[in-house]
Amino acid sequence: MKLAHHLTIFKNSLTLLYDDPLGYEEQFHKLMLILLSEQSDIYQQAERLAAVKHSTRDELYRRISIAHDYIRSCYTQTLRLEDIAQAAWLSPSYFVRHYTQIYGRTPHQEITALRLARARKLLTEQHASMTDIAYQLGFNNSVSFSRMFKQHTGLSPMQFRKKVISDKKS
Questions:
Q1: What is the pTM of this model?
Q2: What is the pLDDT of residues 87-100, one digit of tens each?
Q3: Of 69, 87, 110, 124, which sits 20 to 30 A from 117 (CA to CA)?
């Protein structure tokens, strides 16, 4: 996320930096530092995996990352653990154990977090019904969506929307 943000800033400032080679180099240097930092984070995550060989850890990390990308791109659909594990070419139990080691939460918790973030955005930006939002996020019905939302935020989706509207008016 940090890298994407700085890439956007860099892209938007390219026309201003055209006549300022020093500024251009500074922005480029910042991007390289962020890339190195992210690479270091990835290396540390891979090292946490319980595998004897370094090459095994790298391959396992690569497979889990593929499944993580799969989750992030398909979280609005109904996802089964077996399908996610298959994307990584791992058994479900092996996948969950190592996914949790790398990302600090289970695939289910990741999907829930992504859906909640998207739900908050939809509830603040749109005036779609709860049923429409629930289906957009991959829930079978609005009741399960409302229950999950309230369980994690302490507010029902309607209460959350009303609070956001009143906060905007203040």
A1: 0.69
A2: 999 999 989 998 99
A3: 87
